[in-house]
Amino acid sequence: MVSRVELFGQLSNIIEKSDNQEYRFYGxxxxxxxxxxxxxxxxxxxxxxxxxxMLYKKEEDQAGIIFICEMSIFSSEASMNxxxxxxxxxxxxxxxxxxxxxxxxxxxxxxKNYVEx
Length: 117
Hints:
By secondary structure, the chain is mainly beta. Helix content is 12%, strand content 36%. It has 2 helices and 7 strands, in the order H-H-E-E-E-E-E-E-E. The termini are far apart.
Protein backbone atom coordinates (compact mmCIF):
# COMPACT_ATOMS: atom_id res chain seq x y z
CA MET A 1 0.00 0.00 0.00
CA VAL A 2 2.87 2.39 0.78
CA SER A 3 4.29 2.05 -2.74
CA ARG A 4 0.86 2.90 -4.21
CA VAL A 5 0.60 6.09 -2.17
CA GLU A 6 4.18 7.08 -3.06
CA LEU A 7 3.50 6.51 -6.77
CA PHE A 8 0.33 8.61 -6.60
CA GLY A 9 2.40 11.45 -5.12
CA GLN A 10 4.80 11.18 -8.08
CA LEU A 11 2.12 11.38 -10.78
CA SER A 12 2.80 15.00 -11.69
CA ASN A 13 6.56 14.27 -11.90
CA ILE A 14 5.90 11.26 -14.14
CA ILE A 15 3.83 13.37 -16.53
CA GLU A 16 6.21 16.35 -16.43
CA LYS A 17 9.20 14.12 -17.19
CA SER A 18 7.52 12.24 -20.02
CA ASP A 19 10.65 12.69 -22.15
CA ASN A 20 12.68 10.34 -19.91
CA GLN A 21 11.10 7.23 -21.48
CA GLU A 22 10.86 5.35 -18.15
CA TYR A 23 7.07 5.44 -18.31
CA ARG A 24 4.94 4.66 -21.36
CA PHE A 25 1.46 6.06 -21.97
CA TYR A 26 -1.36 3.95 -23.45
CA GLY A 27 -5.01 4.11 -24.25
CA UNK A 28 -6.61 1.22 -22.37
CA UNK A 29 -9.23 -1.21 -23.63
CA UNK A 30 -10.50 -3.97 -21.37
CA UNK A 31 -11.38 -5.98 -24.48
CA UNK A 32 -7.64 -6.49 -25.08
CA UNK A 33 -7.12 -7.74 -21.51
CA UNK A 34 -9.99 -10.22 -21.25
CA UNK A 35 -8.73 -11.47 -17.86
CA UNK A 36 -9.31 -8.16 -16.04
CA UNK A 37 -12.37 -6.26 -14.88
CA UNK A 38 -10.51 -2.93 -14.95
CA UNK A 39 -12.34 -0.49 -17.22
CA UNK A 40 -9.88 2.43 -17.33
CA UNK A 41 -9.41 4.91 -20.18
CA UNK A 42 -5.63 5.30 -19.93
CA UNK A 43 -2.64 3.36 -18.62
CA UNK A 44 0.74 4.69 -17.57
CA UNK A 45 3.23 1.84 -17.22
CA UNK A 46 6.84 1.25 -16.23
CA UNK A 47 7.95 -2.28 -17.17
CA UNK A 48 11.24 -1.82 -15.33
CA UNK A 49 9.52 -1.02 -12.04
CA UNK A 50 6.39 -3.19 -12.57
CA UNK A 51 4.14 -0.17 -11.99
CA UNK A 52 0.74 0.47 -13.52
CA UNK A 53 -1.36 3.60 -13.15
CA MET A 54 -4.88 3.26 -14.50
CA LEU A 55 -6.62 6.56 -15.15
CA TYR A 56 -10.37 6.98 -15.56
CA LYS A 57 -11.52 9.94 -17.66
CA LYS A 58 -14.41 11.99 -16.32
CA GLU A 59 -14.76 14.39 -19.21
CA GLU A 60 -12.87 16.37 -21.79
CA ASP A 61 -13.49 20.07 -22.35
CA GLN A 62 -13.47 21.93 -25.68
CA ALA A 63 -9.79 22.81 -25.28
CA GLY A 64 -8.95 19.11 -25.09
CA ILE A 65 -8.15 19.17 -21.38
CA ILE A 66 -8.91 15.82 -19.79
CA PHE A 67 -10.24 15.62 -16.25
CA ILE A 68 -9.35 12.45 -14.37
CA CYS A 69 -11.91 11.40 -11.76
CA GLU A 70 -10.44 8.09 -10.54
CA MET A 71 -7.08 6.36 -10.51
CA SER A 72 -5.89 2.88 -9.64
CA ILE A 73 -2.23 2.18 -8.90
CA PHE A 74 -0.72 -1.29 -8.58
CA SER A 75 2.31 -3.43 -9.34
CA SER A 76 2.23 -6.31 -11.76
CA GLU A 77 5.14 -8.24 -13.20
CA ALA A 78 4.87 -8.55 -16.97
CA SER A 79 5.17 -12.34 -16.68
CA MET A 80 1.97 -12.40 -14.59
CA ASN A 81 -0.32 -9.89 -16.30
CA UNK A 82 0.94 -7.58 -19.01
CA UNK A 83 -1.67 -4.82 -19.12
CA UNK A 84 0.15 -3.16 -22.05
CA UNK A 85 -0.26 -6.16 -24.37
CA UNK A 86 -2.34 -5.11 -27.39
CA UNK A 87 -2.94 -1.60 -26.06
CA UNK A 88 -2.36 1.50 -28.18
CA UNK A 89 0.79 3.33 -27.09
CA UNK A 90 0.64 7.11 -27.19
CA UNK A 91 3.41 9.58 -27.85
CA UNK A 92 3.28 12.54 -25.48
CA UNK A 93 3.67 15.57 -27.71
CA UNK A 94 3.39 18.45 -25.27
CA UNK A 95 3.13 18.96 -21.52
CA UNK A 96 2.22 22.30 -19.96
CA UNK A 97 1.63 23.32 -16.38
CA UNK A 98 -0.88 25.98 -15.40
CA UNK A 99 0.26 28.68 -12.97
CA UNK A 100 -2.86 28.98 -10.82
CA UNK A 101 -1.98 32.48 -9.64
CA UNK A 102 -1.38 34.10 -13.03
CA UNK A 103 -3.39 31.68 -15.16
CA UNK A 104 -0.51 31.36 -17.63
CA UNK A 105 0.63 28.07 -19.14
CA UNK A 106 4.25 27.08 -18.49
CA UNK A 107 5.79 24.77 -21.11
CA UNK A 108 7.36 21.67 -19.54
CA UNK A 109 8.06 19.35 -22.47
CA UNK A 110 7.55 19.51 -26.23
CA UNK A 111 8.21 16.48 -28.44
CA LYS A 112 10.32 17.12 -31.55
CA ASN A 113 7.38 16.09 -33.78
CA TYR A 114 4.86 18.45 -32.16
CA VAL A 115 3.28 20.94 -34.58
CA GLU A 116 1.37 23.93 -33.15
CA UNK A 117 -2.04 24.40 -34.78
